[in-house]
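Pasting as-is:
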Amino acid sequence: MDLLLALGIGVVLALRPAEVPIGLRPTYLHLFIVGWISQLIFGVSHWMFPRASKEDPRGTEWLGWVAFWCLNAGLLLRVITEPFAHDGAGGIFLVVSGGLQLAAGIAYATHIWPRIKER
């Protein structure tokens, strides 16, 4: 979904740049880089990194879900508020969005670390 939305905004930016609100430019980049690329990295590493153990091969799965939901909630909040942030409105929502994305990164690092540290 993030990829399709980012690509859609990118096409509109390319075809009609003067008609696109200035706040959609950073939204486009954020959706593509944080939304699509980060989730791709999270998903591939979740499945491809070495197993934690035979009994629990993917590790603490709930931390992966926390990362997923925090990242997507932060992205959604950013998509809703960022187009208006250049006017000074919605600044607190961008801070909350960034906090959710930071929490996602910490949760995912905590989730994946036991699988990559030296045994």
